[in-house]
């Protein structure tokens, strides 16, 4: 594990040994930090990012989501949606409370843990190479670009963003596009 500090954030990056190295740690950390800023995360905080393979994501998908097979990204938020800044354009009212709401009590100087994002690098490569990448599943771009989208997407989920309702999906997708520019 490597911790990357981009105040007020700490990104704990875990790369599994057999996973391709598509993007430097510093770039991954900047993408996470930008998504945390945009997602309205309480500060200071930390997030764990794990780069894994299809086997691990399939196991986690079955265990936590009740679904068979691998997925590209899973997010495990530790805070309720209300802990994040309010945003407009979202039907579900994601993040209605102030940024300091619903925080766990922490010792002085400690960072608020926000949760975990686990990405299948294997799935990112496969989706990109098959032209099944991007938000619409029909974008042909590099595996590195697909990985950055999945990291951004997973981080926004930790921040309470969702895409279950059409307005929420439009807002989340627009923010992802903005962050990946």
Task: Describe the protein's architecture and organization.
With 181 residues, the chain is an alpha/beta fold. The chain has a single domain (2-100, 111-180), classed as Metalloproteases ("zincins"), catalytic domain (Collagenase (Catalytic Domain), 3-Layer(aba) Sandwich). Helices cover 37% and strands 19% of the residues. The protein contains five helices and five strands. The chain has helices spanning 25-39, 54-65, 121-129, 143-158, 166-180; strands spanning 2-6, 9-15, 45-52, 73-77, 112-120. It has a five-stranded mixed beta sheet, with helices on both faces. Helix 3 packs across helix 4 (143-158). The protein is globular and about 45 Å long. Residues 95-102 have low confidence and may be disordered.
What would you report as the Rg, rounded to the nearest angstrom?
Answer: 16 Å
Helix vs. strand class:
alpha/beta
Categorize the overall geometry: globular
What is the oligomer described by this structure?
single chain
Strand order of the largest sheet: 1-2-3-5-4
* Biggest sheet descriptor: 5 strands, mixed
SSE string: EEHEHEEHHH
CATH superfamily placement: Metalloproteases ("zincins"), catalytic domain
> What do we call the CATH topology?
Collagenase (Catalytic Domain)
The strand count comes to 5
From the N-terminal CA to the C-terminal CA, the straight-line distance is 28 Å
Mean pLDDT: 90
CATH C-level name: Alpha Beta
* Number of separate domains: 1
CATH 2nd-level architecture = 3-Layer(aba) Sandwich
Our estimate of the beta-strand percent is 15-25%
Helical residue percent band: 25-40%
So how many helices? 5
Low-confidence blocks of residues: 95-102
